[in-house]
Amino acid sequence: MVRTAGLKDLKAEVARVLGANKGLKAVIKKEVGDHLSGKRFFILALLVVVTCLGALYIAASTLRTSVGQDQLDFVFLRLFTTSGSSLPFSFLSFISFLGPLVGLTLGFDAINGERDRRTLSRILSQPIYRDALINGKFLAGVFVIALVIYGLGFLVGGLGLILIGVPPSWEELLRLMAYLTLSIIYIAFWLALSLLFSIIFRQTSTSALAGIAVWLFLAVFFGLLSGMVADGIYPVQDSNDTQQVLANHRLEQNLSRISPTTLYDEAVTTIMNPAVRTLGPVLLEQAFGALKGSLSLGQSLLLIWPHLVGLVAATLICFALAYIKFMRQEIRA
Amino acid sequence: MTNVNKNIIETFDLVKKYGPITAVDKLNLKVPEGTVYGLLGPNGAGKTTTILMLLGLTEPSSGKAIVNGYDPVRNPLEVKAMVGYLPDNVGFYDELTGEENLLYTAQLNGIEPIIAQKRIEHVLKRVGLSKDGKRKVAEYSRGMRQRLGIADVLVKDPKLIIMDEPTLGIDPKGIRELLNLIRELAKEDGRTVLISSHLLHQIQQICDQVGIFVKGKLIAAGTLKELEQQLADRDRLQLELKAIPCDDKLLTICEGLDGVNNLRWEKDLLILECQTDIRENLVKLLTSQGYCPVHLALRGVSLDSIYLRYFQKEGDYFGQDGWLKGLEG
Questions:
Q1: Fewest beta carbons within 10 Å, which of A183, A189, A192, B68?
Q2: ipTM score here?
Q3: In B, which residues are within 8 Å of A123 by CB distance?
Q4: What is the number of domains present in chain B?
Q5: Nearest to A102 by CA among A142, A139, A136
Q6: Residues of A (125-144) whose Cβ lies below 8 Å from B
Q7: Could you list the residue range(s) of the whole structural domain that residue B239 is in?
């Protein structure tokens, strides 16, 4: 009973928001339709699905040989995290790598594309608030991302179930849901970033390139850079000096956490691998006497809570910047 | 012209600055309801900026506009709900059909799907695109896009239609059809139409009133007749004369006539600049002297010459000859 009341409230709330934002519903509807029927999205979705199915196949065949050999727990989750010798990527690393590309593809020509087609002034001269357009585009993008990620996650989970025949526990299912939700937030960050670029740059090719540049920088070079900075500030002269090593490592880790990519990678590793107990360096004396075992879901979530907050904040900041920039921009080309 | 006393658009010292450049300078524009109003001016005169301010798509630096009783800055939605805007070089979503594009507009206007469907059919028929509604816009020609643009404007059933350079890039036949359609929209449906253009020949055919707009300023406004009057008051009249026989004595006779300030030859035409309309006296005099006038015309009665003369008068506005030549062509 309580649940249905909540659902009704939610429905009423959605209706209220849509009523206050005239045209938002129409924009969302059109954008979702555009995304789903577009060739660009089709190609990208195909790429992601094929790679993820490949990763699943490798994981399943690796798991089948190792199941039962030693005490393997959380077999279902391992479907997503295991990589094999022939394909050194797991489902997790594929989503982490290709996810940003999905976000960028959905948003890089959101506003400057409308300018190019000369539809922007025509749409904005309809009786809608200006923000209905950008809100609608963002929400439609998030909806499509959620559709893809949840769909893909459950597809891979279901096929994996058939391949290895070990049913998931409730905790594993919840961890999977948490992981998929985190992925949606992470990809939404890239969507918001590309939306921002599509407003700043007048050329769609420029905004696409800018998005790819940031993606490569954060995914590949940022870790390198934070290591270099940390070595510069806290150089390790004596590798036996714990203080030096710790200071260097902490700085490097904290710096690299500026990048949403690092935040996401750390968070999903923790959520999908219950054996991960801490994300920082562990001293031998701290590990001494610790009982072997895995973290409960609640504890894992607690460990990555700051990461989650950071990711949501980064997404919202990007979107807010895009929003402000768009509201102040001149309509004229 | 119905209901002349009510202005559907009125601006009060409207100013728009882009950095150091003043695009629109203290504009006081009045557009009476039910008229076809032509906003005439060269490229970069601030016409589009003015239109965007009227729609609340850009904020004025100072001054204000009232459109159908609403301030577009404070009530943009009320204004946009009753104004149909056709931007210059209107664009559509190429991957959608004509009907789908119109449907999106209808949805943005909050029109019920069933009503929208009927209206779309009706407006497509009206602009002559009934057969092409189900085709993708990517396959449309330039003229068809423009007609779809008008259909797009009509879907929301606007009281006021604003068109920015609607005839640009369309062939002569298309232009004629377009102008007839615009005329119909105003006369039969009773809508007010504001057309911005730099092509005065076209404006002249269908406008009840015109405003001449240069460098952000409205330098003359009113009906064509009023503009002629204003021009006659401010400038000397010019008469074109051709008479038989054509000899030097003709020159002396004309020179001696009362009210003639100046005269010169333009090929075989004698141009008389005079204070007042002296045609009657001139003809009497010439016939009494044995001359037969075969051509006699008052210059400056077409909008074309009015337009040109305004720029000649506002000498400092008249920097480039380039667009003037373009105008004459």
A1: B68
A2: 0.86
A3: 108
A4: 2
A5: A142
A6: 125-129
A7: 235-298
